[in-house]
Amino acid sequence: MDAIGFETHDHHSCIRDGLEAVAGYCATNRLQFTPVRRRALEILLQQHRAMGAYEILDQLREDGLGSQPPVAYRALDFLISHGFAHKIERVNGFIACTHPGHDHTPVFLICRECDAVAETHAEPSRGMLGKAASETGFTIEQAVVEVLGLCPNCAPVAP
Amino acid sequence: MDAIGFETHDHHSCIRDGLEAVAGYCATNRLQFTPVRRRALEILLQQHRAMGAYEILDQLREDGLGSQPPVAYRALDFLISHGFAHKIERVNGFIACTHPGHDHTPVFLICRECDAVAETHAEPSRGMLGKAASETGFTIEQAVVEVLGLCPNCAPVAP
DNA sequence: TTGATAGTTGTTACTTTATAACATATCAAC
DNA sequence: GTTGATATGTTATAAAGTAACAACTATCAA
User: Fold this and answer.
1) B2-48 pLDDT, tens per residue?
2) Which of B110, B126, B145, B154 has the most A C-beta neighbours within 10 Å, making it the best mutation to test the interface with A?
3) pLDDT digits (tens, 9 = 90+) for A10-46
4) CA–C1' nearest nucleotide, residue A37
5) Helix (H), strand (E) at residue A32
6) Secondary structure E strands in A49-128
7) Going from the N-terminus, what domains does chain B have, and what CATH number goes with each?
């Protein structure tokens, strides 16, 4: 499995690669990867945990990149609408997507101790989700799966 | 599949049965099914759709059962913590549980047109969710699945 | 039946999260 | 360079949720 978030990894390249991937995608798709948007993504990439919009705004403010809520929310809207970030509804927070560019149904594993979030994927059209939907005649457009629990670092050691 | 919400059904018995089931559970478990809690559940049962806390509060107020936000939130907390209702994070709303008493991982099918919500179930320990979790060493405690789309009543007619 | 205790409700005040609306600036293509 | 679309700055406010404390009610043991 390819979830990132709980294992130690080269976090510097993780940030750099994330920014580069999005920059590339924006370039080829004529999207404006402006300073506010870039910085907002960078802030999210620095942590594999859900951050509040106002927390992000605080950091943007320090960089002189906007000081009012709409600035942060607009940057986040941009990132989310193009699949570069996700909202974690459960905690009203946001995280950078670890698989930008791919169309996917994210599954978030949220640690209730340390707030770390790992992202992995599901295939909603298969399995019981798709089955349940087709039996009721429901048309799936978007699915979110949020799992709360303990990450390996916070789980009690095995007996 | 046993999702309720999209098909037409005997809604009166649906409300009555829901109230009775919860009343029974509370009686045997020494929980206080007070007027506010009972009425809050009844309000939720009247609609198979997510309702906002303030919307519920408005109705409670009309009945003289509390007029300040904490009253509604406390009733909802009670209902949720005992599995009689669920929060739909996606829309900051609440619905009555259609399967009270059973321990379960709910899956919500949310219609973006009419706000109807159908509840069905998943078995997180099986399938990819459990696989993903065990591979990362994550301990699942609670999972929520929210699916956005169109219910059969709102979907465009088949060609 | 009284009194202790835990649980519930009423209320005030406040925090956190999010958005509407409009003015100004910048970009991108002709 | 003008124009139309897109992005930002800003004010003000809406919507969602909670902390804290006082007052009331149920429960149960002595």
Assistant:
1) 455 577 788 899 899 999 999 999 999 999 999 999 999 999 999 98
2) B145
3) 889 989 999 999 999 999 999 999 999 999 999 999 9
4) D7
5) none
6) 85-88, 93-96, 105-111, 117-122
7) 11-149 (1.10.10.10)
